[in-house]
Amino acid sequence: MHYWGYDGGWFGGLFMLIAMFLLWGGLVATGVILLRRFARPPDRRGDALKILDERFARGEIDKDEYEQRRAILRG
């Protein structure tokens, strides 16, 4: 079958297959890059408060130190 005046045979089919892989791979890579660039960073403040709560529950810090650090973390 002729496309644009060229009969590629098996080479043309192989070329089209490779081109499709490159096209879809490029689209997926672009999507991943955009998601990483514009995604919100994880909330580290929640992790810090959780660790602070655990340290207080284990008795590693007293109530005054707990409340002072909690106020700092909450801003």
Automatic annotation (TrEMBL):
**Name the record gives this protein:** SHOCT domain-containing protein
| Spans traversing the lipid bilayer | 12-35
Lineage, top-rank taxon, reads: Bacteria
Which residue numbers delimit the SHOCT domain?
47-73
Recite the UniProt keywords alphabetically.
Membrane, Transmembrane, Transmembrane helix
